Amino acid sequence: MKAGFTPATVLALTCGFAFLYLPILLLVAFSFNESRLVTVWGGFSLKWYGEMLRNRQLMDAAWVTVRIGLVSASLALVLGTLAGVTLARFTRFPGRTVFSGLVFAPLVMPEVITGLSLLLLFVSLDWARGFWTVAVAHTTFASAYVAVIVQSRLLTFDIILEEAAMDLGASPLKTFFVITLPVIAPALVSGWLLAFTLSLDDLVVASFTTGPGATTLPMRIYSQVRLGVTPEINAVSTVLIGFVTLGVITATLIQKRRFADGQKRKA
Amino acid sequence: MTAPDLPAALAPDARLPAEPWNDPKATPLIKIRNVIKRFDGFVAVDDVWLDIYKGEFFSLLGPSGCGKTTLLRLLAGFEQPTSGTIEIDGVDMADVPPHRRPVNMMFQSYALFPHMTVEQNVGFGLKQEHVPRREISRRVGEMLELVQLADLGRRRPHQLSGGQKQRVALARALIKRPKLLLLDEPLGALDRRLREQTQFELVNIQETLGLTFIIVTHDQDEAMTVSTRIAIMDRGRTVQVGTPGEIYEYPNSLYVAGFVGDVNVFEGRVVEAGKDHVTVRSPESGCDIYTDRGIDAVPGQEAYAAIRPEKIEIGKAPPADARFNCVTGRVFDIAYLGSLSTYHVRLATGEVVKVSAANRSRLVERPITWEDQVWLWWPPSASVVLLS
C-alpha cells in the first residue's frame, strides 16, 4: 500500500507533530542558548550543561531519581511478572476477575488519588517518608504495566514448549527458568524499561510520598521553575527527555524483535 | 532410503519375538486398564483397555476428536485419567509427573525451543540428567548423524525447513532412549512425498534402536505402512485392535471396514450360519453371498457383507458357477489411476459396486468400457460378514 501524501495530509501531519513536539523542541533548543534569558537566543553554547553538572541539588536529585527508578522497576518486574503469569496461566480460580481488576486498576487511577492514598497509608503505618516510600509507591503502579506486558506475551506463548521441556525431564520450576523466562525475556526487558521510565518522570505520586532528603529530579525542576525558568533547567530537562526517549525506543524495539535475535547468541 | 550405519553405542537390542501379543507368556510394556478421561462432562477417552509390547510400533488411528491425542497425553502424564490405571514397565504411573516418566514425546507442532540451537535442543534431555558435557556433545553428534542433520547443529529452529524441524524433534525425543516414544501426528505437516519417505525412515530407526513407538495418526495409509498393530478409535473407545492385515481383511464393524480402505457393503439377512460359513441374502445385490468364515449369528438376523474392491473379478461374460457371489450390471464410471482402474458398476437394483483391477494391458486396449454389461464375482474368502 502506498502512503498517499497530499498537501492537505502533509499539513495536518505537520500541525499535529508541531502541536505535540514543538514545545519540547523549543526547550531542547534553548538548553543550548548562550543567553541567560530563556526567551532570547544569544548564540550556541554548552555552558548550561556545565552549570547543571555543578549544581549539587540538581545532581543529588538526579541520583535519587535514578536509584528510585532502578529499585522500583526491579520490584515491579518481579511483582508484575508474577501477576502476569497468574493471569495468563490460571484461567479459572475463585476471585480471578476481582484479582485482574485489582492488578490493572492503577493503570486508570488518577495519580493524585494514588499519591494521596499512599500518603495516608504511610502516615497511618507511621513509616518515615523518604527514598523507600517513593520506591514502594512507584512499584505499585509500575507493576501494573509490567503485568499487562507479561500477560499479553504469555498469551501468545505456546504452552507446548513447557510440556516438551518437562517431557524431557525438566521439573516445572526448572522449565520456568530455562524455557519460559528466556522466551519471554524481551517482554520482561521492555516491561522493566517502561517501569523505569515511568518512575523517572513521575512528579505527582513522588510529591505525595516523599520526605526529607529524597527529592526527585522532576520535583526539583518543578520547584526551581516556580522561582523562574533558567536555561539550566532546560539542560537537565533535555537530558531527562533523552533518557526517557531512549528507554521507550529500546523497549519498543525489543518487543518487536522478540526472539529473532537468534543468530548471534552462540558463536 | 536406509538409515545410516549406526555407531556402536546405538546398536540394536536383541531381536524381539515377532508377535508378542499372541504369546500368552509375554508381559506387556504398557498396560492401560479401564482408562476414562472426562473433560467438563465430555468423555474424551472412554474405558480403554490396551496392552502394548516392547518393540512394537503401535498406531492409534481415528478421525479427529476420537480421543487418540488425549490417550497419548495420558501416557505422557500431561493429563490424569479420571479413572483407570496406566502401567509402564510394571510401574503404576498415577503419581508420576511427566518429567519423571520413562517416556518421551514428539509433538505435532514439534515444539522446538526457539532460543536454543539444534544441538542444544537435541541435548536438552541429557542435560536434565546431568550427563557430562563431553558425553552430551558426543551423543548429540551421533543422534544428528542418525537423522541426517549433522551439519545443521548450530542453526536455530526458525532457520530450518519443515522436514528438518521434524528430524530435530525426532532426535530430541530419541536421545534419552526412552522405553516408550510417543509420536503425535509426527508427519502431519510434511508434504506427501516427504511423508512417505519419512515413514520408512521412522520404521528403520525404530527397528534399529529396538524402541517402542506409539503413534497417533488420522492417516490410514500411514498407520498401515508403519505399524505392528493398530487400534482403531471412535468417540473415545477402541473399536478394534489388530495387525494392519487383520484390520484390513477382518474388520469387526462397518466403521472399521469403512475407515480403513475402500469397501462395498451389501445389506441383507443371514440365511444360514455355521462354524465355517455364512450365507447372507441381500436384496441390494440380487444374489446370495457365501462367506467361508463362520460368525455367531442366527438365521433371519440383519447382517452386512463387506467386500474390498480389489477382491472382485470383473468380466464381460458370466463365470462358470453363478449361483452365488455373482452380480451383473453396467459400467457407468471408470477412474483410471495409472496402475489401477476403478470401475463403478450400477446393478439392476440401483446399488453401485466399486471394482478395482490392475491395468496389465495398455489403456488403449482396455477391454471394458462405459456402458458395457459386466459380471462381477468373488470367491467365498473375499467377503466378511458384519453384524454392526
Automatic annotation (TrEMBL), chain A:
Biological process, per Gene Ontology: transmembrane transport
Location(s) in or outside the cell: Cell membrane
UniProt topology in membrane: Multi-pass membrane protein
Domain of life: Bacteria
All residue ranges annotated as the ABC transmembrane type-1 domain in the record: 62-254
Protein family (similarity comment): Belongs to the binding-protein-dependent transport system permease family. CysTW subfamily.
Protein name in UniProt: Putrescine transporter subunit: membrane component of ABC superfamily
Source species of the chain: Candidatus Defluviicoccus seviourii
From TrEMBL, chain B:
InterPro entries: AAA+_ATPase (IPR003593), ABC_SmlMolc_Importer (IPR050093), ABC_transporter-like_ATP-bd (IPR003439), ABC_transporter-like_CS (IPR017871), Mo/tungstate-bd_C_term_dom (IPR008995), P-loop_NTPase (IPR027417), PotA-like (IPR005893), Transp-assoc_OB_typ2 (IPR013611)
Keywords, ordered alphabetically: ATP-binding, Cell inner membrane, Cell membrane, Membrane, Nucleotide-binding, Translocase, Transport
Domain ABC transporter: residue ranges: 30-260
Any Gene Ontology CC annotation: ATP-binding cassette (ABC) transporter complex
Gene Ontology molecular function terms on file: ABC-type polyamine transporter activity; ATP binding; ATP hydrolysis activity
GO biological process, one term: putrescine transport
Family annotation (SUPFAM superfamilies): MOP-like, P-loop containing nucleoside triphosphate hydrolases
Class of enzymatic activity (EC top level): translocase
Catalytic activity: ATP + H2O + polyamine-[polyamine-binding protein]Side 1 = ADP + phosphate + polyamineSide 2 + [polyamine-binding protein]Side 1
PROSITE patterns hit by this protein: ABC_TRANSPORTER_1, ABC_TRANSPORTER_2
This protein's record includes keyword ATP-binding: yes
Enzyme Commission number(s): 7.6.2.11
Domain of life: Bacteria
Assembly and oligomerization: The complex is composed of two ATP-binding proteins (PotA), two transmembrane proteins (PotB and PotC) and a solute-binding protein (PotD).
Protein family membership: Belongs to the ABC transporter superfamily. Spermidine/putrescine importer (TC 3.A.1.11.1) family.
Known function: Part of the ABC transporter complex PotABCD involved in spermidine/putrescine import. Responsible for energy coupling to the transport system.
Protein name: Spermidine/putrescine import ATP-binding protein PotA
Source organism (scientific name): Candidatus Defluviicoccus seviourii
